[in-house]
Each structure stands twice: as structure tokens, then as C-alpha cells.
Amino acid sequence: MFILTISSLLLVVAMGIGLYMKASPILHEHSLWDLLSASEWKPMKNQFGFFPFLMGTLWVSGLALIISIPISMLMAIYLTEYSHSVVRRFVYPFLDILAGLPSVIYGVWGMLLIVPWVSNVAAPWVGRNTTGYTVLACGIVLGVMVIPLLVSLFIEIFSNVSHELREATFALGATRWQATKHVVLRKTLPGILAAIVLAASRVMGETIAVIMVCGNLAIAPNSLLDACYPIPALIANNYGEMLSMPLYESALMFAAFILFFVVLVFNLFSRLVLKKIEAQ
Amino acid sequence: MKRSIIEEYLARLFMYAAVAMVIYFVASVVLSVFMRGFPLLSWEMVSSLPGGGFYMGGGGGFLNAIVGSLYIVGGATVLGLAISIPVVFFLNVYLKPGSRFAFIARLAYDVLFGIPSIVYGAFGFTLMIYFGVRASLLGGTIVVTLLIIPIFIRSMDEVAKTIPTELMEAAYSLGSTRWETIAVIVRQIAPAIATATLLSIGRAIGDAAGVMFTAGFSDRIPTSLTQQTATLPLSVYFQLQSPSLEVQDRAYAAAVVLTLIVLVLSISGRIIMNHFSRNKIQ
Fold first, then answer.
1. Residues of B44-77 as b/e, b for ≥16 C-beta within 10 angstroms?
2. Per residue in A91-108, is it b (16+ CB within 10 Å) or e — as a string?
3. Is A29 among the domain residues?
């Protein structure tokens, strides 16, 4: 039992070391800064610029968070502060389903509804012409995917605030929304930030849904209506060809290592904050 | 005074809108997949293997993907349970509450839970190259097992933490050793084991990025652990990339099958959580 427990601990370490070792050949060949800031991706010519992929990930994750944070926060406030338990029993199964649906189904949904909507409605509205496989479509799909995680984290955080605190605010004549705004939200601010960081790390690692709607074009996007190519899509799309060239494989493993490292740091930070809140 | 009441109504309005939007999203995802795929679904598709010229619009079905997914998920669930029940037991019985080791271990599982499946896939792939194993049923099962172990441990541990110490003390006072209390613990967390299993199966069956590298793809049902195998999500993904409309139609049909499986899992998970907690002492 002890061995099982400690070996799963070592899994985290092994993952980091394993991916780093595989990535080290390319780090010998090019400097870290070159890899991250160059924007030419031509593996056959020994040019490995990760900039377009980093920007793709940033744009997509940012948009997904902008979409999902207000919705999830309002929903969590409603469920913890306002709603009757009957309403909760009705709404929770919807969140379960949203959380349970596989990534590929979200991808199918994106291709069926969101991509055509972007190309037929959103893009013409601002006078642009696109296929619909854009940052916008990708951000919407990812935003919807991450809602259940954010809502459940927010609910957990909000229900940790003691009832006496709320009641004291009501006694001072505050409305329910005022109590929420000035007491609950202010008191839980660190928790909210931690939850958002956690959601960001989840969004960054999504693969299949992203690959299906992002357009897969290795150019850093300049607007919401440009195609993009986030890091997970890069890894998944090229693994078949990479075996022919050692440096190419190393480049993809470097991409996986970046992803691992960022997710690890984000997770450690937010989990420690959340644990501290839970302990109070 | 007046302003605060207007604000209150506005806030409520936005909240209703947010809840309505989420319900709309759920309906939109499920219905759009069903409306597109359900009319195309036929018995032939779920009961036969891909025929000749399948990816150019030939006959056949995606039984290979259904069975492949079941093999991987079945194997991973059994392995995952066998590994995570002892770990949960160890964390809660053998370690003192507030132990530093338990804290770090739980943190590690939280982190593992957050690591994306594509990273598991890439890591599994490097391991497989290192050991000279090629993409196979075995590789896919191992990666999916690693992927779901954190889910198992976290959701069982959550419940195991709430087991009252008096219950354990009662067991000790009847002369049981620590190891023998596993019967008490398992009975207490039985509903949690059930829901964790359903949750893990849901995640395992929907995972595509992890098995992409490690299980490969094949038109046949694997007969040994070293053969490549197809999985449902990858079958949806690959068929959607085909230019042929007939092949795409089949992808939508496969998506309906996958959605149905996941819906059944998540609904029965709720039911178990609500009705199956009778043995539990609060």
C-alpha cells in the first residue's frame, strides 16, 4: 500500500523528468528564448518556432475564460445564495451532463453549430469572411466545456462562508445582492482567483475539441476571427510524422513539457490556496 | 434605497440568464449531436466491423471502436480500482490525520487530476518507446489507468475522510487489526466507489488524446494485448476528417452512441448518489 501511494507520487516527478529528457536534444540545438519567440515552424528545415502556438493557446484560453467566468459565477451565486433546494436538484444534473460529455462530442457540437455560426453570422456582422474555424469558435467551445468545473469550484468556495456573516449583513439592511457583493465575493476573492487559475490550466490542455474547431494554422492570431493552432493540437496532429526525425520528436516533447510545466505550476498554486481556504 | 433594489433585480435577472444559458448549452450540445446523428444510426453500424473501402464510404460499422473502447475502459477500471482502494485505505487508516505525507500525497493526486490527457499520452508514448512497446491495447489501457486513478482516489478519499473515528475505534475494540478494518471502510465508502467508478468510466471512454499515441487505431477487434485497437472518440474524430459525406455521417452516428453511453453513466451516477447511501453512518 505504501509502495502504491509513493509510486503515484513519483509519477508526477517521472513525468517531468521523462518529458524533459526527451525535450533536451532540441534545447541543446536552440536556446529556450529562440524556441519560444521564433515564429517559423518548418521542422524539415530545422526551424522550430513555438510563438504561434503559444499565442494560439493564450488567445483561446483567454477568450474561454472571459466567456465562462461571468456565467459560472452568476450561476454559482444563484445556486448558493438565492435558489431553493428544488431548483438545485433540477439544475445539478445539467451540470453533471456538461461535465461528463467527452471532448470529442464538444468538438462535434462546435463543428455543427458554432463554426457555421461564426462564419455565417459573427464574421459577416463585422464585415469579415472566414471559414469559421477560428479563435472565436474555439473559445466558445472551450468556455462551455469549463463551466461545470468553475461552477462546482465556486459553489464549494461560496458555501464555505459562514451564515452568520451573511445574516449580520442582512441585519444592517443590506439586500441579498449587496451581501453577496460586499461580503461573500470579497471574502472569497483568493478562492475565486485560485479557481480561475485551475480552470485556465484545464482549458490549456484540451486537445480533441480544440483540434476540431481551431483551424490548425501555424500563424499567431491577431484577432478573434483568425485561425489558431494551440499547443495540444500541435502535439496531437504531428505525432505520426515525428518519428522520422529525432529533432522533430524532441520538439513535440518540448511542447508537451511546456504544457506539463505550466499546468503543474498553476495546479500547485491553486490547490494550495484552495486547501488553505478549506482548512479555515 | 431605490438604487439598491434596482440593482438587486438586475443581479437576479443576470443570474436567471446565466442559468438559462447553461441549460441551453446542455440542450444544444446533446440535441445537435442527436438530431444530426440519430437518423443515421442503424443496427448494422453498431454490430459490424468496417467493410472494404470503409473510409471511402463503403459498408460496415464501427463495432471495432465500440469493443476497443470497452476493452480499454474495462481493463483500466479494474486496474484503477485495484490500485486506488488500497491507496485510499492507506491514506485514511495508516496515516495519522494531519500527517505531512498524506498532505503531499493528496496534493499530488490533485495535480495529477489536472494534468491534461495529451501530456499523459505523450509521457506514455515516451515510456513505450523506452521499453520497446508499440502502440497497443496494453499501452492504451495503462495510460487510461494512470489517467483515471486520480479521479478514483480523489472521489473516494473525499468520502473516506468523513468516516467518524468512533467507527474505527469500535472496530479496533472488537479486536480487529488495522488491515481488517478495510471491510468497514469499503462498506462505508461503497456508494463513493460506485459513483467514482461511473465518473472514471465516463472520463475513460471519452478520452481521445491519451489513447491517440498509445492505443493506435485498427479496423479489427484486437485479439491480444499487443495489437492496436480502435476507440470510439478517435473513430468519431478520424471519420469526421474524411471528405466523404457518408463517412462523416457515420462519425455523427458514432458520436450519438458515445453521447448515449455518457448520458446513461452520468444519470445513473446521480441516482446512486441519492439512493444508495443507506449503509453509511453519518
1. ebbeebbeeebeeeeebbbbbbbbbbebbbebbb
2. bbebbbbbbbbbbbbbbb
3. no
Rg from Cα positions in chain B: 23
Of 3.10.560.10, 3.40.50.2000, 1.10.3720.10, 3.30.470.20, the CATH number of B45-279 is: 1.10.3720.10
Report the CATH number that the domain containing residue A157 is assigned in CATH.
Answer: 1.10.3720.10
CB contact B213 to A (< 8 Å): yes
Query: What's the total number of domains in chain A?
Result: 1
Interface of A with B in 175-234 (CB under 8 A): 175-178, 180-181, 198, 201-202, 204-208, 211-212, 232
- Closest residue to A235, CB basis, from B86, B122, B233: B122
C-alpha distances out from residue B157 to A89, A99, A171, B265, Å: 24, 20, 39, 21
Helix (H) or strand (E) holding B12: helix B2-37
For residues A143 and A63, is the Cβ–Cβ distance under 8 A?
yes
**What nine digits make up the cell of B162?**
468523513
Cell of B150: 486520480
Residue in chain A closest to B179 (alpha carbons) equals A1
Indicate yes or no: CB of A263 within 8 angstroms of CB of B119: yes
Residue from the list A11, A106, A253 with its beta carbon closest to the beta carbon of B146: A11
Q: Among B15, B165, B31, which residue's Cα sits nearest to residue A97?
A: B31
User: pLDDT by residue for chain A (280 residues), tens digit each?
Assistant: 778 778 877 888 888 998 898 888 888 888 888 778 877 787 777 778 888 899 999 999 999 999 999 999 999 999 998 888 888 888 888 898 898 899 999 999 999 999 999 988 888 888 888 888 899 999 999 999 999 999 999 998 998 888 888 889 889 988 888 888 888 888 889 999 999 999 999 999 888 999 999 888 888 888 888 888 898 998 888 876 666 677 888 888 899 999 999 999 999 999 999 888 877 7
Q: Is residue A103 part of a domain?
A: yes
Q: Which residue of B has its CA nearest to A212?
A: B237
Beta bridge partners of residue A41, listed in sequence order: A48
For residue A271, the enclosing domain spans 49-279
Question: Which chain A residues touch B236 with a CB distance below 8 Å?
Answer: 104-105, 108
**Residue A1 falls within a domain, yes or no?**
no
A44: Cα separation from own chain's centroid: 31
Residues of chain B with Cβ-Cβ distance to A77 below 8 Å are: 15
Q: Do residues B101 and B95 touch, judged by C-beta distance below 8 A? A: yes
B233:A104 CB<8 A:
yes
Q: Establish if A34 belongs to a structural domain.
A: no
From chain B, the residues in CB contact with A147 under 8 A are: 22, 25
Residues in chain B with CB shorter than 8 Å from the CB of A91 are 19, 22-23
C-alpha cell at B232: 470510439
Closest chain B residue to A23, measured at CA:
B126
Task: Check residue A145 and report its DSSP letter.
Answer: H
Q: Does the distance separating the beta carbons of B22 and A95 come in below 8 Å?
A: yes
